[in-house]
Amino acid sequence: MIIVAQRVSTIMDADQIVVLDRGRIVGLGQHAELLDSCETYSEIVRSQLAVEERS
């Protein structure tokens, strides 16, 4: 099954997450792995958490 999502909360428990930036794969792995290894994914997570905290 493939899921396309913009919200991290939708995919956090996925077996495999593919991070795309301008059509290029910049990260591949699980949530915890990507937090450590993919700056793009980490930035997305931080920005979404900041929005949730303001709500």
Give an overview of the whole structure.
The protein is an alpha+beta fold. It has one domain. 49% of the residues lie in helices and 20% in strands. The chain is built from three helices and two strands. It has helices spanning 8-11, 31-37, 39-54, and strands spanning 17-21, 24-29. It has a two-stranded antiparallel sheet with strand order 1-2. β1 (17-21) and β2 form a beta hairpin. α2 (31-37) packs across α3 (39-54). The N and C termini lie far apart (32 Å).
Give the helices and strands, then pairings.
Blueprint: H1 8-11, E1 17-21, E2 24-29, H2 31-37, H3 39-54
Antiparallel strand pairs: 1-2
The helix fraction, in percent, is: 40-55%
Number of strands: 2
Helix-and-strand structural type:
alpha+beta
User: What would you call the shape?
Assistant: globular
Largest sheet: 2 strands, antiparallel
Oligomer: single chain
Strand content: 15-25%
Distance between the termini: 32 Å
What's the pLDDT, averaged over the residues?
A: 92
> Helix-strand pattern, N to C?
HEEHH
Number of helices: 3
Strand order of the largest sheet: 1-2
The domain tally reads: 1
> Which stretches of 5+ consecutive residues score pLDDT under 50?
none
| Gyration radius, rounded | 11 Å
Brief summary:
It is built from 3 helices and 2 strands.
Write out key terms for the chains shown.
55 residues, alpha+beta, two-stranded antiparallel ribbon, 2 strands, globular
